[in-house]
Amino acid sequence: MRISLRDVQRMKDRGERIAMVTAYDYPSARLADRAGVPLLLVGDSLGMVMLGHDSTLPVTLDDMTRHAASVVRGSDRALVVGDLPFLTYATLPDAVAAARQLMQDAGVQAIKLEGGQAVADIVRRLVELGVPVMGHLGFTPQSQHQLGVRVQAKEAADARRLIEDALALQAAGAFAIVLELVPAPLAEAVTAKLAIPTIGIGAGAGCAGQVQVWHDLLGLGDGKPPRHAKPFAMLRETIDAALKAYVEDVAHARFPTDAQSATMEPAVLAEALKGLG
């Protein structure tokens, strides 16, 4: 049985730290689900880590649907949240159509969208229609050309606005809010003011939970990971070594061996070759 919204809220109420990780395909979902990760986010970050774009902006709703469907198929227990891509929720009809596609065609149990008071009415209506909504404040990747990739809400007025945005999302019915790249003291203060869970990424330890990108967590990315990420393994090095060993073994006829090959009776082969010249 999948984790429910009520289960997530109970975790927060009991003071249990909530782990969330991005997943983009069937195998990553299987691994995360087996490890007991309670929340899986099919993030539009797939545009960069899976599709090779330099931002989330080119990601389409069809991209999200295809990847989210594979994550849902790969998980049995985790609550799967799917991102609504750039400008797919600019109007209420757009948001309803996008949420319908992700929930009906992909099978996610909740959607996530970026913004505060500006999208509160859309969040409220989606919730009224039965769509569980997770908010996202602070650095919002879909607005990176306006915001820049940097810590947000460091000044008093911006911090106040973020708090007001968080309260507005909660009042609209959001079941949780991601806080990305905001000062740790501010994230802790927001968490204390909200009844719903906050999920931090680059927002310190004071949030109710944490989310990490799959490739950062497992050391699969190129170059140095972001400051807010902790690689719990360096799988890129393991994969590099394995692929180089494979190339070497093929080049020097060390693979395949008899152990990886099937055989047949010589007489059967001779019969098949008879008369072929």
Task: Supply the number of structural domains.
Answer: 1
Q: How does the helix and strand content classify structurally?
A: alpha/beta
User: What strand line-up does the widest sheet have?
Assistant: 1-2-3-4-5-6-7-8
CATH fold-level label? TIM Barrel
Number of strands: 8
Written description of the protein model:
- There is one protein chain.
- It contains twelve helices and eight strands.
- The longest helix is centred in the middle third of the chain and has 17 residues, at 156-172.
- It is elongated and about 85 Å long.
- Helix 2 crosses helix 4 (61-74), helix 4 (61-74) packs parallel to helix 5 and helix 8 (156-172) packs parallel to helix 9.
- An eight-stranded parallel beta barrel has the order 1-2-3-4-5-6-7-8, surrounded by seven helices.
- The mean pLDDT is 96.
- It has helices at residues 5-13, 26-34, 46-49, 61-74, 92-106, 120-128, 144-147, 156-172, 184-193, 214-217, 235-251, 266-273; strands at residues 18-22, 39-42, 79-83, 110-112, 133-138, 176-180, 198-201, 209-212.
- Helix 2 (26-34) links the parallel strand 1 (18-22) and strand 2.
- It has a single domain (5-237), classed as TIM Barrel (Alpha-Beta Barrel).
- It has 277 residues and is of the alpha/beta class.
